[in-house]
């Protein structure tokens, strides 16, 4: 059986949760790049639909919230020398968001979806250089 699936007690085969950077994604990229793009588009579309339903004012911001997004005045920049996971653990959500947009472009994500991501980022952190992405 493919390592991407596990068998439940009932005998049904169910997909395992696979991280986007995992070896299965890399394998999928080599064998089926169009399918990988479709998967990214589908997941990111759902994610953006959810993000866009929440008014900007409802997102918790630092320093008012002990945990939350950077202040609207923060100017996001591309992460260097730091993984996306590490940046998020450090509370650098804006920088992580800013960094993933070009990475998703490289993967062939739909340009209209990338435009939505940039627009949401610009709404959250207006001083970022979003047009450069």
Mean pLDDT figure: 81
Biggest β-sheet: count, sense, barrel?
2 strands, antiparallel
User: How would you classify the helix and strand content by structural class?
Assistant: mainly alpha
Q: How many β strands by DSSP? A: 2
Helix content estimate:
40-55%
Question: N- to C-terminal separation?
Answer: 41 Å
Task: Give the strand order of the largest sheet, numbering strands 1, 2, ... along the chain.
Answer: 1-2
For the record, the count of structural domains works out to 1
Ranges with pLDDT <50 over ≥5 residues? 1-8, 11-20
One letter per element, helices H and strands E, the order comes to EEHHHHH
Cα-atom radius of gyration: 17 Å
Shape: globular
Proportion of residues in extended strands: under 5%
Q: Quickly count the helices.
A: 5
Describe the structure.
The chain is mainly alpha-helical and 133 residues long. The chain has one domain (33-132). It is built from 5 helices and 2 strands, in the order ββααααα. The protein has helices spanning 23-31, 33-53, 84-89, 93-106, 111-124, and strands spanning 5-7, 13-15. It has a two-stranded antiparallel sheet. A hairpin with a 5-residue loop joins strand 1 and strand 2. Helix 1 crosses helix 2, helix 2 packs parallel to helix 5 (111-124) and helix 4 runs antiparallel to helix 5 (111-124). The longest helix has 21 residues, at 33-53. Residues 1-8 and 11-20 have low confidence and may be disordered.
């Amino acid at each position: 059986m493919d390592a991407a699936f596990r068998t439940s007690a009932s005998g049904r085969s169910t997909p395992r949760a696979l991280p986007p950077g995992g070896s299965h994604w890399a394998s999928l990229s080599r064998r089926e790049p169009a399918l990988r793009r479709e998967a990214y588009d589908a997941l990111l579309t759902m994610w953006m639909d959810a993000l866009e339903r929440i008014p900007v004012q409802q997102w918790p911001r630092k320093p008012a919230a002990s945990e939350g997004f950077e202040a609207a005045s923060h100017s996001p920049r591309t992460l260097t020398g730091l993984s996306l996971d590490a940046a998020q653990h450090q509370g650098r959500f804006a920088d992580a968001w800013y960094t993933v947009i070009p990475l998703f472009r490289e993967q062939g994500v739909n340009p209209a979806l990338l435009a939505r991501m940039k627009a949401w980022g610009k709404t959250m952190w207006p001083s970022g250089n979003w047009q450069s992405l």
